[in-house]
Specification:
The complex is a heterotrimer. Chain A is an all-alpha fold. Helices cover 18% and strands 2% of the residues of chain A. Chain A is globular, with a radius of gyration of 21 Å. Chain B starts with a helix and ends in a 6-residue tail after the last strand. The chains are: A mainly alpha, B alpha/beta, C alpha+beta. At the A-B interface, α1 of A face β1, β2, β3, α8 and α26 of B.
Chain lengths: 245, 800, 83
């Protein structure tokens, strides 16, 4: 799990350089940079310097902060029977957070924490069933198991510990937004599923007890979601948009 | 009104009323009644724009813009899964700095001009000196684009001066297939990955480069299947972690490993004698080397291998003798299904043809061939390197359908399909990529006889090897004129004399051909920005100008325009006029003409309309008695290939004309440049999962650029310590040809062996190809980007 | 002779639709009406009801056509008979 990243002795100095680079803006190394125009830089977690004396006791590595509090803070989230109180504002906030981590509704979310870039991904340790660790929710993955997680999910910030990150590129892409809710045949009817269920077949990943407020099911104890909530044939590619077999 | 007329009128009235109800009021019955949220988004299929895997995506379009991408559930290649590039492929269209107007360099500055002026300039360059006019194309050209370019050069100008960037990525795979089977492209397909018990990756990192295929293998394990993965590599990569065996070898020593396996199979008698006796001949190289070589007996083959004992192979390669024996044990087990995968590791190799031959040879020798799961399979880097380059023959010596200009009977076939006067096609091949650019970067009076290159869909200013010598001199030589058709201001476009803004991917109709012989089709879904226009149109518009100027080559033997596009009534449509270009489906008509070539070498393609319906079809696609079209998964195998009729395995394009494939012997030899006292480290270059080639598209996609924002030098921790280099420090990497500065990343994405470094080439700003070597394979002419000697030193002043 | 009123629904992309439309134009058995959005009313004349069904299946298999709805069928089998 934990692996010493790059820096050992010169850690503090190197961090200082990185921070200076981050604050002062980036001087690029080469030429022909006109193509890339700066938008807001992506903040990355600061690396805390580690003294020799701390070596035995302080953890380090991709999820060091969370690890440090691992056992004390391990929790499962709200009880399944706990009443859910949520508002439209909660939903708007939840959707906004979702949008930050995706290029469009349906895109694989980026990873908001550091990862080991080389090893076989150990994502399932937390994301197989979902956990609350150190106040952060590691959501249950919404799809069946695939082992090469980093095939689709990439980190949201420069993966290098010590680096000056060039500015992000400018894009005019506007992604498909998440819909706010399904349709109801009459007030009180169960809403239809307003999004594709492809790679989102485990409803509780977002709508379960660890789901964001605003998107949480009021009845998480019910397991057979599609009994009442109809998926869309069109969104699930079950209608013929072309005449392919 | 007679009764029939009455019936017709009332039927039409009823149908029209129903159509109106369906369109405006009540929706059509059936599944479509489900109200679709985001129902204003229209979805259609397209193959992914990036690698040679050939995944299909569903493209979501709203208000003439791509807004979402979904993995195509109906696609056999990817079965509803994509990689991170695929999920973000739609964003490739929307970098803020798309090229939207033609630009001409005047007084050193690129200034907007009209399309009319721009095309006149291109046509004039070709008209004034056709012999010095070349097209440098791409494995990212669509099939109709490549076909139009090839016809323009081979039939129109009759100079053969056309070569693609695919020369740099898969031409050794081509020569390997040709020298072994007499015909290009893999016999197996991706279905092998579902059946293989053992998958051997020869210098290949599919976890990053062909992620969807890699998942297809490793996800079998999650389902409880047993698959043994073996990683033959020079650096620890993301693939290594998934493998039961990671065998590190010294650069270039893969030939010794292959010979070591063959040696044990022969000495232990564990090779498949029945298979070899029935389907194989033995071959050795000649001097100078040729694709045909010369015959050798089994005994001579055995003697040649005698040197390659496990211990000797260990000494050459660094792979333990026990592991060589383990590999030979696996190949010696006939009941196992073994698939070999390779990509640039074996192809970008000065012995590229030889190592391709040897890996095919091990499979043939051991009989691991032709059954599902038993296959030597080369993976392709680009989305249509197979479709557009290998099949359409956009190489300096190629003609469509696997034909070549050097064979009189092939020229005759092509002249017949193109309706050309006899003798129109030039028998002399044009220049291969390295030679072409060398001549473009050499003054005319010193033999630099190429003065115009029209670059399409590629970025040679970053992707050629040794760009300091092959590309940059041309930019200050008088009389050299560089034309670039592209979508972004790439390094090449910014260095050009004339820039033509192109439509990309779903902004145009297109067809690709992937690594497993699968031909794919898509329709235009959104309009290109500004004045950006299709590459095929650009080619046809230039061709028409040359026709109007009276260039005889632009006429067929009946005096008609070489690119005659007709409407349903048979009348010629002036598609060279952009306003009329989409009056008809030009792709369809070019493809239907090209399709006639596909019969010569049993690479049969189906009619265009079949590809519209399918998520690609693997050739040969053969018409059945009931009028349906059947694709072929396992070539040369009677159980699946309709052309293999005589025996269980029939190599019906055999070099030796006896339905047998060739098992070659090639000795191990040291590489042309190895580390020495002055340049003590190996340099290897390659890709990372986030980025596509020189990053001109993916570096404009925020999610991908943020995940991998800049190039780096990957170094072994011990080497770094010895040089006093810390992680993140900026260093200078330098070869005999050039140097660049870039930051070091230690224990990052991968770990190179001691004594070697790795630099990805996606970053246009940090151009590692200033450092690489242009030495190339003698047959395939493919340069070796995977090994040259460099030194790394700290930059004087820290930090940058 | 059977006369059927049909409604063709094209696929969503204009290129796919125009591809299919070109195919329909070439078919002598069809009389094309005025298109409404992506729907096209047509009249098909076939020898009998069975070949009418075959025709509908044929139309459905044309690339670019999403669906074919049968609106009306006249079973005037004897129209061209020995009168």
């Amino acid at each position: 799990m934990s692996r010493v990243r790059g820096i050992e002795v010169g850690l503090a100095a190197a961090v200082a350089i990185a921070v200076i680079g981050f604050v002062t803006g980036v001087t690029t190394t080469g030429h022909e940079v006109s193509a890339y125009v700066s938008v807001r830089p992506v903040p990355r977690p600061e690396v805390a310097a580690r003294g020799y004396a701390d070596m035995r006791t302080r953890s380090y590595g991709p999820n060091a902060e969370a690890q440090a509090q691992w056992f004390g803070a391990l929790a499962t989230g709200p009880a399944i029977s706990e009443p859910v109180v949520q508002s439209e504002a909660d939903r708007a906030a939840a959707l906004a957070r979702r949008a930050e981590r995706r290029a469009y509704d349906g895109a694989p979310p980026t990873i908001p924490h550091d990862i080991d870039q080389l090893a076989v991904p150990s994502c399932l340790a937390c994301h197989a069933e979902g956990k609350v660790i150190a106040g952060m929710v590691a959501p249950r993955m919404s799809h069946a198991r695939h082992d090469s997680c980093v095939q689709c999910h990439v980190v949201a910030a420069d993966p290098r510990r010590v680096a000056q990150t060039p500015p992000a590129p400018e894009t005019v892409f506007v992604g498909l937004e998440s819909v706010r809710g399904g349709e109801r045949a009459w007030p009180g009817a169960p809403p239809t599923i307003p999004h594709s269920t492809r790679m989102r077949e485990r409803c509780d990943a977002c709508h379960g007890t660890l789901g964001a407020l605003g998107m949480r099911s009021t009845h998480p104890w019910r397991q057979s979601c599609v009994q009442c909530h109809a998926p869309s044939a069109a969104l699930d590619q079950r209608t013929t948009t072309s005449r392919s077999p | 009104m007679d009764r029939r007329e009455f019936l017709r009128t009332s039927a039409l009235a009823a149908a029209s009323a129903a159509a109106y109800r369906m369109a405006h009021g009540q929706p059509a019955p059936g599944p479509r009644t489900t109200p679709a949220p985001n129902g204003d988004v229209r979805w259609d299929k397209a193959p992914c724009r990036f690698c040679g895997t050939g995944c299909h995506v569903q493209v979501g379009v709203r208000n003439d813009k791509v807004v979402a991408i979904a993995a195509d559930e109906k696609a056999e290649v990817n079965k509803g899964l994509l990689c991170v590039k695929g999920y973000h492929v739609g964003l490739a269209l929307y970098g803020k700095d798309r090229l939207t107007r033609p630009l001409l360099r005047r007084n050193g500055k690129l200034e907007p001009i009209s399309w009319e002026e721009a095309l006149d300039i291109v046509a004039k360059r070709a008209f004034d000196n056709p012999a010095g006019f070349a097209i440098y194309g791409s494995g990212q050209w669509t099939i109709p684009e490549g076909y139009a370019a090839n016809k323009l050069i081979k039939a129109g100008l009759a100079t053969n001066q056309i070569d693609p960037n695919a020369r740099l990525c898969m031409s050794s795979a081509v020569t390997g297939f040709l020298s072994t089977y007499g015909v290009d492209e893999p016999a197996g397909c991706y279905d092998d990955l579902d059946k293989a018990d053992v998958v051997i990756m020869w210098g290949n990192n599919p976890a990053e480069m062909h992620p969807v295929l890699f998942s297809r293998i490793v996800d079998r394990r999650s389902r409880g299947e047993k698959v043994t993965l073996i990683d033959l590599t020079t650096r620890r990569t993301r693939t290594s972690g998934f493998c039961q065996h990671t065998l590190f070898f010294k650069p270039n020593s893969d030939l010794a490993i292959a010979n070591g396996i063959a040696h044990l199979l022969v000495e232990r008698g564990t090779f498949d004698k029945a298979f070899v006796d029935a389907y194989c001949n033995f071959r050795q190289r000649t001097e100078p080397p040729t694709l045909d070589g010369q015959a050798m007996t089994f005994e001579a083959y055995r003697r040649a291998l005698a040197d390659y004992t496990p211990e000797k192979v260990e000494a050459i390669s660094g792979v333990a003798a026990a592991d060589i024996r383990m590999l030979a044990d696996l190949f010696g087990k006939r009941d196992l299904r073994i698939t070999s995968l390779w990509c640039m590791g074996m192809n970008q190799h000065t012995r590229g043809t030889a190592i391709n031959d040897l890996v095919h040879g091990i499979h043939l020798l051991s009989g691991h061939f032709g059954r599902p799961g038993d296959a030597p399979t080369s993976l392709t880097g680009q989305p249509s390197a197979c479709g557009t380059v290998r099949e359409v023959g956009t190489l300096a010596h190629g003609l469509p359908g696997g034909l070549v200009v050097t064979k009189p009977e092939h020229r005759k076939e092509a002249e017949a399909v193109w309706n050309l006067p006899a003798g129109r096609i030039n028998a002399k091949p044009g220049y291969h990529t390295v030679e072409l650019w060398k001549r473009f970067s050499t003054p005319k009076d010193k033999g630099g006889d190429i003065d115009t290159i029209w670059v399409m869909v590629t970025n040679p200013a970053r992707s050629l090897p040794n760009i300091n010598q092959l590309f940059e001199p041309s930019r200050s030589l008088p009389g050299k004129f560089l034309i670039v058709s592209d979508v972004y201001p790439t390094a090449t476009a910014m260095a050009a004399d004339l820039v033509l803004p192109s439509a990309m991917w779903v902004e145009k109709n297109g067809m690709f051909g992937n690594s497993e012989r699968r031909t794919q089709q898509w329709f235009r879904m959104v309009r290109p920005p500004g004045e950006a226009r299709d590459d095929t149109w650009q080619l046809l518009a230039v061709a028409r100008r040359l026709f109007d100027r009276g260039v005889p080559g632009l006429k067929d033997k009946d005096g008609q325009f070489l690119f005659r596009i007709r409407d349903a009534a048979g009348a010629e449509v002036p598609v060279w006029d952009w306003k009329r270009y989409y009056d008809v489906n030009v792709d369809e008509q070019l493809f239907e003409e090209y399709r006639k070539f596909s019969r010569f070498k049993h690479k049969d393609l189906a009619p265009y309309s079949e590809y519209v319906k399918a998520r690609g079809l693997r050739w040969p696609v053969v018409e059945q008695p009931d009028g349906t079209w059947r694709e072929t998964r396992f070539r040369f195998a009677r159980h699946d290939d309709p052309y293999a009729k005589k025996a269980d395995i029939q190599f019906y394009h055999s070099v030796t004309k006896d339905d047998r494939a060739l098992i070659w012997f090639h000795p191990y030899e040291p590489p042309p440049e190895s580390p020495d006292r002055d340049y003590p480290l190996w340099l290897c270059t390659g890709r990372v999962i986030e980025h596509w080639h020189t990053g001109t598209m993916t570096m404009r996609i925020p999610q991908l650029q943020r995940a991998m924002p800049e190039s780096y030098l990957e170094m072994n921790r011990e080497d770094a310590k010895a040089l006093g280099i810390a992680d993140g420090e900026v260093v200078i990497v330098e070869s005999r040809r050039g140097k660049i500065e870039l930051p070091v990343w230690i224990d990052g994405r991968a770990q190179p062996a001691r004594g070697s470094v790795f630099v990805p080439f996606f970053d246009e700003r940090l151009a590692i190809n200033r450092v690489t070597l242009e030495a190339h394979d003698p047959l395939s002419k493919q340069p070796d980007y995977k090994k040259c000697a460099v030194r790394v030193r700290k930059k004087e002043r820290q930090p940058r | 002779m059977t006369v059927s009123g049909l409604v063709i629904t094209f696929m969503d992309t204009p290129e796919a639709a125009s591809f299919a439309l070109a195919r329909l134009h070439e078919d002598a058995r069809l009389l094309l009406g005025e298109p409404v959005a992506n729907r096209l009313p047509i009249v098909a004349e076939t020898a009998d009801a069975t070949s009418g069904e075959t025709l509908v299946r044929e139309l459905e298999s044309i690339a670019g056509i999403a669906r074919v709805d049968v609106i009306s069928i006249d079973f005037a089998e004897d129209l061209d008979g020995p009168a």
